[in-house]
Design a protein that fits this description.
The complex is a heterodimer. Chain A is mainly α. Helices cover about 70% and strands about 0% of the residues of chain A. In chain A, helix 1 runs parallel beside helix 3 and helix 2 crosses helix 3 (about 40-60). In chain B, helix 3 (about 45-65) crosses helix 4 (about 75-95), helix 5 runs antiparallel to helix 6 (about 125-135) and helix 7 packs antiparallel against helix 8 (about 155-160). Chain B is elongated. The chains are: A mainly alpha, B mainly alpha.
Amino acid sequence: MSKKNLMGSEKFEKCLLLYGVDFNKWPEPEKYRGMESLLNSSELQDLYAEQKKLEKFLRLRKFEEANDNLEERIISSSLNYPKRSFLILPTIISKFLNKIFNLSKRSVIPEIFIIIGILILGFIIGFVFFPDLALLKQKQTRHQEFSYFAGFEGNVLWKEK
Amino acid sequence: MGKDLSHLSDELLIHEIQTGNRTAFAEIVNRHAKRFYSIAYRILFNKDEAEDVVQQAFLKLWEKRLDWNNEKRAKFTTWFYRVVINLCFDHNRKKKELSLENFTNSNGNSNLKHERQDTLFGEGQKQALLERYIWQLPERQRLALDLCFYEGLSNKEAAGVMGIKLKALQSLIMRAKKTLKDKLNRDII
């Protein structure tokens, strides 16, 4: 390798700080240039030795391993949370709508809840405020059935009433 | 016993978790709990607190699993590192009394006292000094060092976790290591 291709001390130090003393962690173009430069320069060898010392120092940092039952503890704690199965139906509907209408990928669960709420409200209003309408229809149907089975023609019985 | 899900990627496991599959949740916990504990410990410097934070993060994942959007999210580990780190910072903020002064007084000095009986720069004393130097670094530099040097993330991954550009991350690491190197040369060598 010609001297021109060797790495300067500034660049070499920068790479050492960024990627460490293990050349395998250096990106490809710098890796070979760095190794070659190290062999050819005593200045870089000093920098390398200094960096090695720093890394050795940094590895002295205290670390306590987690308890062996950490995973178990987390998993058993999660059992206290319900599965929230009531949300599964809106999720399925949401995914279905996203697929059919090619909506944005965001979840439409809130909108589905609103629609379900409106429908329930509609039924409640219908039964509370217009109960006669439902009963009337029911009554008419029953009379028609009775007339049919009793042999009357059409809605004779109903019309008389 | 549930199915063996060890062959599934993290993102597929999350998809399973969304359907309420507890086996998938157990798999992701077994796969990653220790890794996230490690970064939590580096930030909090307390085993019990680090374990609690990791537990809290995983429970949040289970509780809010339906809010996860696979298409939008980055890699699971990148996103979850962020969750754990934010919980750690919140935890530290709440616990103001654990200031640098307290830390160095209680931890560093007591260690130093014990180690004085040994050689002048025994391992224990070096360790105490290192803890102090690291705590004296600005928060972002410390985090960059934790992620890249101690957790072994690539510079690109660490930048993704911190939500900053690669150049900015590299600048943080260089400044952190330079500061530590200067202090090492000044005080120990």
